[in-house]
Amino acid sequence: MQILNPSxxxxxxxxxxxxxxxxxxxxxxxxxxxxxxxxxxxxALHGNxxxxxxxxxxxxxxxxxxxxxxxxxxxxxxxxxxxxxxDSVTQPVEGIPNMWAVPATIDLAGxxxxxxxxxxxxxxxxxxxxxxxxxxxxxxxxxxxxxGLLTVNALVxxxxxxxxxxxxxxxxxxxxxxxxxxxxxxxHLNPKLYISTVLLTMYDRRxxxxxxxxxxxxxxxxxxxxxxxxxxNVRVSEAPSYSQSVMTYDPGSRGAMSYFDAALExxxxxxxxxxxxxxx
Length: 280
Prior knowledge:
Layout: E1 19-23, H1 32-45, E2 50-54, H2 60-64, H3 76-82, E3 91-92, E4 99-102, H4 111-115, H5 124-131, E5 138-142, H6 149-157, E6 160-166, H7 175-188, E7 194-201, H8 208-221, H9 234-238, H10 246-249, H11 254-275
Parallel strand pairs: 1-5, 1-6, 2-4, 2-5, 6-7
Antiparallel strand pairs: 3-4
Helix pairs in contact: 1-11, 5-6
């Protein structure tokens, strides 16, 4: 009941201004889409107006939110390449109040190449979000597992970066490249961009390796790491096959409770940053 919040009350604080968060890590399989979907659903269930933009050609976030994304559906590709308004490709998410999604179709697979010749190619998504008439508390951008033009568009559009890091041996190997890329984008394209949140995923408390990775990540990122940690949980993996988030698929599972804790922490931290007068 706490997680589903059937009363619809605002139980997670709403930010004073829209937060645009890119969920990025060029390593595949670290839980980017799972994190974007479940944290977005948790915030929406607890009174925030949330938009999820699926920027991965695989369309997994669209699947997890049960948003149609077959060929011919208006999608984020139309915004990036054709200049379509964001509102025209946005769909409400069925069963989740206060939540909308911009789907990705297979058309997006060719967008990296097509964007090369487009004017102001790095800021197409940024312009689309700023021109949207609808008001949101949160915009989550689910990035593809690469550092190509789609991810660059996401990082130019975002103010914050959320990095999910898997508790495995290779976890930190690619993070250095990602943080370097974020520094480059901050220097040349988006001075407001910063890493606000790091979330440890797929944590297996039975292994010493998970503890070592956690120690490494926390020493590297400091207080950017959430206290909440996402455990390995079969319910989290099962939920997308039913086109659901784990929050609605099994709200009593450890996975759902962990993502709820992470979403609450993100919401509370956001209000603290705002009250202190800005970001770092």
